[in-house]
Amino acid sequence: MRTCILWFRNNLRLGDNWPVMQAYMNYDLVIPVYIDAGSQHNQKWVNGPRGEFREAFLIDSLMELNAGLMTYDSELVFLRETQSVNTLQSLAMEVGAMAIIGPKEFTFNEVFQEETLKHWGKSKGIEIEFYNEKTLFLQRDLPFKLNDLPEVFSRFRGKMEKYAHVREAIEEADISPFDPDDFNITREKLIKSAVSQDKRTAVPFRGGYINAWEELDYYFWESEKVLEYKQTRNGLLGRGFSSKFSPFLSLGCLSARQVKSELKRFEEEVESNESTYWLFFELLWREYFQWIALKHGKHLFSRHGLKPENIIEQGFNKRAFEKWTSGNTGDGLVDSSMKELAQTGFMSNRSRQNVASFLVHDMGLDWRAGAAYFEQNLIDYDPASNYGNWLYIAGRGNDPRPFRKFNTKVQAERYDPKGEFVNTWS
Length: 426
Ligand SMILES: Cc1cc2nc3c(=O)[nH]c(=O)nc-3n(C[C@H](O)[C@H](O)[C@H](O)COP(=O)(O)OP(=O)(O)OC[C@H]3O[C@@H](n4cnc5c(N)ncnc54)[C@H](O)[C@@H]3O)c2cc1C
Hints:
By secondary structure, this protein is α/β, with parallel strands linked by helices. Helix content is 47%, strand content 7%. The protein has a 5-stranded parallel β-sheet, sandwiched between helices. The structure holds flavin-adenine dinucleotide. The site of flavin-adenine dinucleotide (FAD) has 29 residues, from helix 8, helix 10, helix 13 and helix 15.
């Protein structure tokens, strides 16, 4: 019997999922596995496990994936282990797997895991394959070598729009049955989190690929809010000012190609305007940060980021940092945004820019502390997008402007003129 381990990482769905398709197409017995390696954020600045909302979103997403597999008489093997690679190696030996198949990731630690596994696989005669299901384009579609990836987004976007085509989403694989008890595999139980949602939340939904499609239906077809996205995307309050696809995209409950396919269908059947284009434009930002992460490896996480020549002026002060995390800086917009994050696990893009700029440029604190706190708490945490955006604002990333400071007073006048956002969260 040709057996393989299918390693789920941030691709928690069954449709448009190359590693899933490859596993079920080429092997008789597929063992689907998810390993929760706990919190990865830098413990130098933030202690403790993942934030409760991020944890709940992940568990919901895993439960939906497992429910999907169970309809085919399969089951997700859920393990809590700190060392994913070692765990996979032991499991592969235990069950006599011929291969380990998983999704390709773009950030340093994850790429390192892939390389380590490949190296080990070679010595054991076990095939190790990683397939890209995350981005709109494959690496071979890029109209330049990875090393020549433009360091400015507008140049990247110009080239991609001119020379590259987004790949079509693929169908769901034919899932075959699998019973972990046949192999005596001990696994953990997935238990729904009891965390309750704050009534004020901008993300009144739970994780999982079925919930993801419901949100997509809501944003495109039911409310048609995508038609005004360009005008509303800088909003701070409520469900519909932006798509809220990010938590689903980050865990892979939804693929970027599925969003793009559905957007195209909407443009053909309902309307295509500046706003529908702008949603694609933002997906290109997501795309850009993935390739930047792959190109720059560990520099994305280093103090100097991508600009070693820039002088570092930021330091660290624990008490000041705690004022920022707890929403007690004295700046209304910043404090309300931080409270929203603590109480929901989400924050709008405009708020993220404001609080990040405030931490770095007003408080003079090390950008990595802010990024680590976001990593711990955001339900849509994605390493490439998080660290890429933080570097951008700290002036150590891909911003052609050397210094990008947001004046929070001006921001409040422009984006919260009646003080509704601040009143909601104060
Ligand atoms: C300091 C900082 C940290 C951030 N950390 C993350 C993170 O960990 N995970 C994450 O997904 N996004 C992150 N972002 C980007 C952005 O804030 C969120 O993607 C967005 O707010 C999610 O809401 P939405 O899905 O409604 O976005 P929409 O405005 O509806 O955009 C649609 C999609 O485009 C992508 N997108 C939009 N803006 C960006 C951007 N600036 N960078 C990358 N992708 C983008 C997202 O996948 C998003 O779901 C960060 C931004 C900043 C300034």
